[in-house]
Amino acid sequence: MDKLLEALKDRADQAEVYREQVKTIPIEFRSGKLESLKSTETQGAALRVIANGRLGFSTTTDMSDVSTLAKAALAASKFGEEAKFSFSSDNPSPRHDVYDREIVDISEEALVNLGERVISRLMDADPKVDINLSLSKRVETVAIRNTSGLDVEEKRTSIGLSAEVGKTSEGDIFVLFDEQQVRAMSDLDPDRLVKHIVDFLGYGEKIVQTESKNLPVVFTPNGTIALLLPLLVGFNGKSVLMGTSPLKGRIGETAFDPRFSLTDDGTIAHGVRTSAFDDEGTPSSRTPLVSKGTVEGFTYDLWTAALAGVAPTGNGYKGGLMGGGGFRTPPGVGTSNVLVAAGDRSEDEIIASIEEGLLVDSVLGLGQGNIAAGEFSNNVAVAFKIEDGKIVGRVKNTMIAGNTYSLLKENLIALASEPIWVMGALNTPAIAVDGVSVIGQ
Amino acid sequence: MEQIIKQAIAGSDADYTEIRIEHEARSQVLFRKDKLENIEGSREQGGIVRALKDGGWGIAAFNDISDLPGKVKEATRMAQLVARNIDEPVELAAVEPVQQVVTADLKNDFRSVPLEEKKKLIEEYNRILLGYDKRIVSTNTRYTDSFRTVTFANSEGTFIVQEIPDITLLLVAVASDGSQNIQQGFESLGEAAGYEFVQNREEDAKSAAKRAVDLLSAKPVSGGKYTVILDPSLAGVFIHEAFGHFCEADFLFKNEQLKKVMKLGSRFGNDDLNVVDEGFIPGLRGNVPFDDEGTPRAKTYLIKNGILNSVLHSRETAKKMGAEPTGNARAISYEFEPIVRMTNTYIEAGHQTMKQMLSEIDHGLYAVRAYGGQTMFEQFTFSAAYAFAIEHGELGEMLRDVVLTGNVFETLRSIDGIGDDLAMFGGSGGCGKGGQFPLPVTDGAPHIRIQNVTVGGK
């Protein structure tokens, strides 16, 4: 990397080399049986150059031939966009809590045993279920150096556990899904995953009908993504800059219910997206997006921040919005860990207070509909009917639709008091809103 | 390279060993609004070894292709670990060994087009999108090309080198009327073709921009049950998402209950319903002359005259289910093992005209283009880019926010009209499954009419 930067000094105004080395062990169980074991060992480098004020990008997997990489990035920069930003120069120290020795050391056999234990506990609860389970450990080193003097390197670990549990009967297939992504072995909570699935299998035994009308909906922590996805897009500094976010120009405005607070936090302990720096080397930070209903800020990478005339927030992630793009993709504005503030009633108490409504745990067609405008319209995948404060059965072939911005401003019933990590980097309690359009059978 | 691969396989202790090595050259030009967000030319190489030992699969994926014997050992070690933990060993259906080189024959090879020329072309499309109307607030104009050379060899004597070209163009216009009404129009194009495929697309850019602006004044659809005509693009997404994934045998072969649901010979639709997965149609993105297990392409009738005729197989699922491999074991890249995937999937043309189907509907919807689709077993959901009301046999006003959902088996049985106008769509995205996205595929269909479809809305 040093040689590459040295060689580029005379040919570019600025240069940045991102390098990652990743080792993973993914394990797949299908229909309850071990299917395959895999080991991957991949590495790649991405080079960004700004030459004559213009940005160029190229990537390679061949570390022995960096001169081809330099040529390609310089060639791209000839026709590239004008770049009026500087690569990061802060040098944050690596965090130690994002690297867990226990994950590094855990053997393939131990992972297989863990998977088998989870499967046997699910089978104990209901022997008729079909279980597909994945476990994956990941150990990576990310190093970024640039001509502004940045020289950072961080070792990170993560482990993922996901289970898809299906129950097929005449004319009906009921599938439950749950997953966990954590940076440390001790944060993995297979008991919670098993309990969630077993409880919901029980609720789902009976199928009930629902009419088409506006109803209160309680989104479980897993289900909240259907409601929150428009916000992840709307608070993205790029959407704001492009004029496609309805939140543009509304900082300081009370655009949400005063009980609603939302934070992007790349520094919080136990977050799976927590790191010392983002994929551009900018130190990670905590960015309040909504504070007690008031719009506080947006997330930015280096380029978008410069165009917007604000400071970067450490949200420059390869792959953009949801990140995870790896060395191949250029950085864009993405979320780190997203936190929804908890309320004061338990999820059970909230459900008990609903006369008629739905409990939604997952939906199909996430990201469809007019997300930019805050609209969601989804088929429920796992949802239950609530009558007189009790879960009375599962609903099928039912759609829910609404507008996140108006639901979280005018129709918030309650936020539950028990936030948990779901979908990896989202920390949220259950959220109940009124007046969701439900289309039943 | 050939000798190194063959030697590594010869030195393997596994019962079956395969090595796939891939070299890729790709480029991308991406505009968002008035900014050139990315311009790049990149190269990548890597490989994967899959070994079967005592009936267990072990896999090793890597970029550093200098130590193939070491990677064969690693995959074999993994396979042995798996073999110790399973009670039913994996077996593979027989496939005739083959030695072949498949070259790509491109009219205008995109690898020899300078990056500057690509940038100029995409910039022009972006200018058309942005300049169409003052209400266009943003764009997403993306060009990609990829040329992969994939070498596959296995311990049965197969050695195949395939060149796989892919080129895509995405044209998205986002319009806003200044309030919270934000709409988009798009054209999404992809083929296994040369640079000529993306040239002369000015009209596509205009139509994407026009649609975004038109949608600003379109009314949201009212939720409920409708008789729906799907245009060929949306019908193609429906057959791929809702039904095609159900036919992927890796999803069925170990699940006794699902196997009963997908029993060959069962009736799935009316007599005139035929659904095909075809591994090679010149120019299409989903083409797989040989799949990533070295099985030659096939034309597979999934549904023939309304009856479930076949599902899609890898060598493993074919053996387990007593069928022939269908050439559908595909991997998106060297980082992944092949899994059962679709190629070019379509509903065959029927005999009805669009006009005829339309004239028989008193109150319904004409849903056009797919914005996205997802399926979870029998339940599917997909959203139309836009739609038109159908009143008394005629197309009426434009509608937006049309999300269709239902049970795939009921919906297939409810298809009561199949048009004579089959069209195929590669699109600029791809299919996702098991963490492998985007896989180039093609979907297609004629216009189809479906009774009693649930449409979400307020």
Count of folded domains of chain B:
2
User: How are the strands ordered across the major sheet of chain A?
Assistant: 3-2-1-4-5-6
List the uncertain runs of chain B.
none
How does the helix and strand content of chain B classify structurally? Answer: alpha+beta
Helix-residue proportion of chain B: 10-25%
What about the largest sheet of chain A? 6 strands, antiparallel
Please count the helical segments of chain B.
9
Main beta sheet of chain B: 7 strands, mixed
Gross morphology of chain A = globular
| Strand percentage of chain A | 35-45%
End-to-end distance of chain A, in Å? Answer: 61 Å
Question: What oligomeric state best describes the polypeptide chains here?
Answer: heterodimer
Identify the biggest protein-protein contact and residues per side.
Answer: A-B, 76 and 78 residues
| Percentage of residues assigned to helices of chain A | 10-25%
Shape of chain B: globular
Can you count the beta strands of chain A?
A: 21
Distance between the termini of chain B: 61 Å
Q: What Rg of chain A, in angstroms, do the CA atoms define?
A: 23 Å
Please, what is the average pLDDT of chain B?
95
Individual helix count of chain A: 10
